[in-house]
């Protein structure tokens, strides 16, 4: 049996796996993807796309193709004019998450989208950029060695016992031969294969479970001629905390709406999935067979859990394979995109010998576990209010939230120590705002690009203060850039405010490729900042 070699084998061609592959490819990484499904899944799943994800996709040059599939949800909060709120059974406001608040990334906090459209874009881009995707195969064995992982791939068989024909896959055998077992030898394997991850099971990753588990009926609605009933326009995008029937009414992408209804105690899944039940639940919201079409109905179990150890040797996980959270803050898939971004700069540095594998992969867990566990706990706390079916307890919860509302959505910092300094601003997202240029106003990324960056205020970049050693490491080895922002570019003074509040006007900030702040120092001390990064990447 022949063996296919690659640097990184990604298991799972969903959005997280495809994004990771697309981010690794420009860095010279030989990456391959294996996917058990022979075709893209055509039905909706995730519906929230946040500001950080939008910036990550922009780094791949996908902004123009992405924008038409994103739904602007500003003002979707109904009578309150905001766009994501919690309401009681009488539709009175309990809490507003202020999804319309400004973000560090310069984009709206969240936008609606239809996942199949996003996957089509990612899949098309992966094919255009010559990333091999082996469809119709499942991982049956993972055998780790000192310097590689051997992965056995078996053809997926249909329920009727027939084998999926390989000619339906982008990678076909010569001469139309029958599908066969494959073996891939990779330096690293990343499991992006979903909540029921095969990679996680084969490598015996243990999980922490918060024991939050509820079944919800998810209904995806196709609008006819854009019609949205007044009942829905009144509440906007909201969690309806009604003990008699907890309900979610949210965006679902352009031309769509999503409703979710919690399965009540004693209620069977079979009865909930009946057409009459479904339309009966939608009727109070003004949706009927005469004014909309039901694209999908399915029961999902909302869970809250994460893997205890993110890395085992040369195998790691990302996305739902690594963590699952209730959807009440729209952060499940977006957290997976953050995983991909975190691995996309680490793995190339490890493969090229620049970074210490143990230290840098350990930092993946240090940073991402703290971040994702905070979001998951917040989702569970808010979800417990939505899911309460005892009227007295529900009323008490509602009043407690009204008296002591949460601060709204926030971007938690990365966990420590990680590849970060100990400074308070380290581990937070860097700022992106529009800059004034010779041909108008443009976002920072559009002007200066992506990657490792040293940024300071003024007319002269920090490069003038760097030694030859620092220039070689930061510029030649990391491919980093030195950028300065002058007062004439920072017309609104937002960069000046950011530096003044969090770092110092005479400081330079070192920004990582995933847009998080590594640390900062006085411009005259830039060599020490770069050396600190080098030592952390080396595991010193």
From TrEMBL:
<dbReference type="InterPro" id="IPR002938">
    <property type="entry name" value="FAD-bd"/>
</dbReference>
<feature type="domain" description="FAD-binding">
    <location>
        <begin position="5"/>
        <end position="375"/>
    </location>
</feature>
<keyword id="KW-0285">Flavoprotein</keyword>
<keyword id="KW-0274">FAD</keyword>
<keyword id="KW-0560">Oxidoreductase</keyword>
<dbReference type="GO" id="GO:0071949">
    <property type="term" value="F:FAD binding"/>
</dbReference>
<dbReference type="Pfam" id="PF01494">
    <property type="entry name" value="FAD_binding_3"/>
</dbReference>
<dbReference type="InterPro" id="IPR036188">
    <property type="entry name" value="FAD/NAD-bd_sf"/>
</dbReference>
<dbReference type="InterPro" id="IPR050631">
    <property type="entry name" value="PheA/TfdB_FAD_monoxygenase"/>
</dbReference>
<dbReference type="GO" id="GO:0019622">
    <property type="term" value="P:3-(3-hydroxy)phenylpropionate catabolic process"/>
</dbReference>
<dbReference type="GO" id="GO:0008688">
    <property type="term" value="F:3-(3-hydroxyphenyl)propionate hydroxylase activity"/>
</dbReference>
<protein>
    <recommendedName>
        <fullName>FAD-binding domain-containing protein</fullName>
    </recommendedName>
</protein>
């Amino acid at each position: 049996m022949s063996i296919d070699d690659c640097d990184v084998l990604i298991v799972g061609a969903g959005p997280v796996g495809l994004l990771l592959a697309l981010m690794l490819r420009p860095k010279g990484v030989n990456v391959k993807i294996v996917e058990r499904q022979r075709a893209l899944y055509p039905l909706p799943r995730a519906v929230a796309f946040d500001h950080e994800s939008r910036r990550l996709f922009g780094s791949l040059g996908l902004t123009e193709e992405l924008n038409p599939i994103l739904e602007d949800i500003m003002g979707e909060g109904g009578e309150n004019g905001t766009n994501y709120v919690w309401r009681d059974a009488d539709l009175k406001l309990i809490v507003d998450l202020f999804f319309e608040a400004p973000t560090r990334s310069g984009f709206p906090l969240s936008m609606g989208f239809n996942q199949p459209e996003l996957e089509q874009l990612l899949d098309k881009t992966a094919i255009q950029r010559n990333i091999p995707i082996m469809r119709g195969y499942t991982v049956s064995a993972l055998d780790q060695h000192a310097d590689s992982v051997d992965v056995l791939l078996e053809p997926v068989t249909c329920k009727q016992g027939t084998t999926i024909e390989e000619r339906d896959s982008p990678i076909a055998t010569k001469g139309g031969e029958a599908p066969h077992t494959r073996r891939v030898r990779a330096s690293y394997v990343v499991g992006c294969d979903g909540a029921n991850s095969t990679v996680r099971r084969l490598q015996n990753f243990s999980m922490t479970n918060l024991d939050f588990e509820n079944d919800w009926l998810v209904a995806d609605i196709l609008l006819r001629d854009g019609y949205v009933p007044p009942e829905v326009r009144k509440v906007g995008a909201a969690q309806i905390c009604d003990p008699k029937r907890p309900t979610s009414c949210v965006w679902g992408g352009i031309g769509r709406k999503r409703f979710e209804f919690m399965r009540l105690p004693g209620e069977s899944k079979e009865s909930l999935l009946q057409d009459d039940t479904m339309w009966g639940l939608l009727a109070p919201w003004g949706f009927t067979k005469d004014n909309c079409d039901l694209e999908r109905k399915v029961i999902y179990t909302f869970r809250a859990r994460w893997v205890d150890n993110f890395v085992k040797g040369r195998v790691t996980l990302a996305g739902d394979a690594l963590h699952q959270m209730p959807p009440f803050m729209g952060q499940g898939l977006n957290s997976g995109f953050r995983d991909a971004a975190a691995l996309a700069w680490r793995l190339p540095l490890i493969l090229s010998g620049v970074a210490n594998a143990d230290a840098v992969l350990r930092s993946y867990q240090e940073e991402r576990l703290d971040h994702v566990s905070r979001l998951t706990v917040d989702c569970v706390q808010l979800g417990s209010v939505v899911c309460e079916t005892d009227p007295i307890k529900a009323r008490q919860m509602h009043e407690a939230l009204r008296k002591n509302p949460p601060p709204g959505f926030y971007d938690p910092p990365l966990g420590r120590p990680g590849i970060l300094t100990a400074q308070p601003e380290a581990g937070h997202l860097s700022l992106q705002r529009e800059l004034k240029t010779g041909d108008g106003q443009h976002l920072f990324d559009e002007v200066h690009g992506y990657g490792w960056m040293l940024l300071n205020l003024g007319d002269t970049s920090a490069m003038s203060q760097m030694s030859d050693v620092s220039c070689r490491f930061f510029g030649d080895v990391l491919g980093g850039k030195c950028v300065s922002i002058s007062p004439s570019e920072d017309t609104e003074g937002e960069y000046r405010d950011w530096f003044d509040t969090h770092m110092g006007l005479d400081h330079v900030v070192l920004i990582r490729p995933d847009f998080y702040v590594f640390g900062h120092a006085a411009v005259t001390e830039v060599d020490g900042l770069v050396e600190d990064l080098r030592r952390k990447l080396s595991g010193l």
